[in-house]
Design brief:
By secondary structure, the protein is an alpha/beta fold. The protein has eight helices and five strands; from the N terminus they run βαβααβααβααβα.
Length: 220
């Protein structure tokens, strides 16, 4: 049985992550095995998850307290892990996620200070044991540069946090990337959209080639 592949896109607000996920999806649409790919977003991706997403990002009048925020993210993730991610990986599919556990560590642990990164990992291990991305594309850009690009956009609740909060998010991501360089591929998000896209595709195709050599079978 083929082993599934789990890919995540990460980064702070305004890093261009959503654009790159969309371009990656367009790239996948041209592949012979395009039906082997499953795209999800966090929070969300399920009926329950989308309701939680609205609670987390849309309600600025009655926001959740920090611990409730963390647990709501975990609840959404627990649902999508069991409903979508694990079944797809067990079928040998390639799951592409717009955010996963690294976001929780960067935002709720490093920036918000709710729990330590180690305790967040322990919490997640309770409902997603041994589940970890194979590749994470971390689009890195400073908050000052990112928000200069987003100045005319409508911001959600998380984006409305102050600059110091988002600088802590950046530091959190940098810390994660420094400890897991094999998994986390740091992408300079100040480059052009096309340059970033080509870099991502190159890394992805190299990973697929490694898998083909290891398994002695072609996925594409």
């Amino acid at each position: 049985m083929k082993k599934g592949l789990f890919i995540t896109f990460e980064g702070g607000e305004g890093c261009g992550k959503s654009t790159q996920v969309r371009l990656f999806k367009e790239y996948v649409s041209s592949l012979a095995n395009k039906d082997d790919f499953v795209f999800i977003r966090e929070p969300g991706g399920t009926g329950l998850g989308e309701k939680i997403r609205q609670l987390l990002l849309g309600d600025q009048q009655d926001p959740p307290v920090p611990m409730a925020e963390l647990l709501l993210f975990c609840a959404s993730r627990a649902q999508i892990v069991e409903e979508v991610i694990r079944p797809a990986l067990n079928e040998g599919k390639i799951v592409v996620a717009d955010r996963f556990i690294d976001s929780t560590i960067a935002y709720q642990s490093c920036a918000r200070g709710i729990l330590s990164p180690e305790n967040v990992k322990k919490l997640h291990e309770m409902f997603m044991p041994s589940l970890k991305p194979d590749i994470t594309f971390y689009l890195r850009i400073t908050p000052a540069e990112a928000f200069a690009r987003k100045k005319d956009d409508v911001f959600d609740r998380m984006e409305l946090e102050g600059l110091s909060f988002h600088e802590k998010v950046l530091a959190g991501y940098d810390s994660i990337a420094s400890t897991e360089p094999e998994r986390i591929k740091v992408i300079d998000a100040t480059k052009s959209i096309e340059e970033i896209h080509k870099s991502i595709i190159g890394i992805f195709e190299n990973k697929v080639n490694q898998i083909e050599i290891t398994n002695n079978e072609s996925r594409f």
